[in-house]
Design a protein that fits this description.
mainly alpha; Four Helix Bundle (Hemerythrin (Met), subunit A); globular
Length: 173
């Protein structure tokens, strides 16, 4: 079971943070992967957004690590976590993995400078949020019961509660 969990996680991570970004890059710009001058010039032009994209990637990888290590599962529905995670970053929002992936994709779109890629990333973001809100949350309620319902009441859906309640209530609960 341990090896299957790790293998499934690696495949999912590969798909979401390597394969999809390569499709963005190959489809929308011609960057030579080993041309450091070209890569650095793009980073200089979009440094703030690129840093946000890297922050999203780190957040995504952190949540994957927590799901494997502490949740005893994977981020993928075939082997879901066995334990409810309520530690940081899950204490700030219920879906930090989705938030990290969305930030990463938008940062990547800014890096490659493509409006078309941005619209594709926005479509992927809408689909991810809809999937989590309308399917995964019901599944989590049935799997973790009252513990998840209490967590759901206390923790915002996607936008972290870092600016107080007034900011929090502007977004989905």
């Amino acid at each position: 079971m341990g090896y299957a969990r790790v293998l499934i996680t690696i495949c999912g991570v590969y798909l979401l943070i390597i394969y999809v970004p390569i499709l963005f890059i190959k489809g929308y710009i011609s960057i030579e992967p080993f041309n450091t001058d070209q890569l650095l010039s793009r980073l200089r032009g979009w440094h703030i957004v690129s840093v946000l994209g890297l922050f999203g990637l780190v957040l995504y990888l952190w949540t994957v690590f927590l799901q494997v290590k502490k949740g005893l599962g994977t981020p993928l529905p075939v082997l879901p976590p066995k334990k409810l995670l309520v530690v940081a970053p899950y204490s700030y929002c219920r879906n930090p993995m989705v938030l990290g992936l969305i930030i990463f994709y938008f940062g990547l779109c800014a890096f490659i400078g493509s409006l078309d890629a941005f619209f594709i990333a926005a479509s992927v973001a809408v689909l991810l949020v809809a999937y989590v809100k309308f399917w995964e949350e019901g599944e989590l309620e049935s799997r973790f019961g009252q513990a998840y319902i209490e967590y759901k009441v206390q923790t915002p859906f996607l936008i972290p509660r870092i600016f107080g309640k007034r900011w929090y209530y502007l977004f989905l609960r």
